[in-house]
């Protein structure tokens, strides 16, 4: 079933910029797999049954986010070690979402990704 949105505004979770959905059109808004499908495959998802792979690929609660198309194109299949969101104040959100997907699906976090995520977490706002 096709997904259609007639308008509205998207606050890009990786940049904080506001995107006019109607003006951006279908090419201007992408759905990003925070934990990339290719990374999941390489790190063990190839062993999963088809149903689990489909659940992971379509998990809107843990792994999918709507983002500006240009930002998603630059991210591509990168993991945190290779590319963090362009806005440093968005690193905490990204790190939390990446780890949420990893834990939910029992996916590993590489040493390099761990280092990048630890660095991001160290800059997260602290509650009072």
Key descriptive features of the protein:
4 strands; alpha+beta; two-stranded antiparallel sheet; 128 residues
What topology does this entry show?
Elements (H helix, E strand, L loop, with lengths): L8 E3 L6 E3 H8 E5 L3 H6 L7 H8 L6 E5 H7 L15 H15 L5 H12 L6
Antiparallel strand pairs: 1-2, 3-4
Helix pairs in contact: 5-6
Give a nutshell description of this structure:
By secondary structure, this protein is of the alpha+beta class. The chain is built from six helices and four strands; from the N terminus they run E-E-H-E-H-H-E-H-H-H.
Description:
With 128 residues, the chain is of the alpha+beta class. Helices cover 44% and strands 12% of the residues. The protein contains six helices and four strands, in the order ββαβααβααα. The strands form two sheets. It has a two-stranded antiparallel ribbon. A two-stranded antiparallel ribbon has the order 3-4. The N and C termini lie far apart (45 Å).
Beta-strand proportion: 5-15%
* C-alpha end-to-end distance: 45 Å
Number of helices: 6
* Count of strand segments: 4
Q: How much is the average pLDDT? A: 92
Class from secondary-structure proportions: alpha+beta
Oligomer, anyone?
A: single chain
- List unreliable stretches of 5+ residues: none
Radius of gyration: 15 Å
Major sheet: order of its strands?
1-2
Sheet having the most strands: 2 strands, antiparallel
Overall 3D shape:
globular
Helix content: 40-55%
Secondary-structure element pattern, one letter each: EEHEHHEHHH
């Amino acid at each position: 079933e096709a997904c259609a949105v007639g308008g509205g505004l998207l606050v890009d979770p990786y940049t904080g910029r506001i995107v006019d959905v109607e003006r951006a059109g279908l090419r201007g808004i992408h759905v990003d797999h925070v934990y990339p499908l290719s990374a999941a495959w390489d790190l063990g998802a190839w062993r999963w049954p088809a149903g689990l792979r489909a659940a992971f690929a379509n998990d809107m609660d843990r792994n999918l986010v709507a983002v500006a198309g240009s930002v998603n194109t630059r991210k591509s299949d990168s993991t945190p070690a290779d590319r963090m969101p362009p806005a440093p104040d968005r690193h905490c959100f990204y790190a939390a979402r990446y780890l949420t997907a990893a834990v939910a699906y029992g996916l590993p976090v590489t040493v390099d990704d761990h280092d990048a995520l630890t660095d991001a977490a160290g800059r997260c706002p602290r509650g009072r």
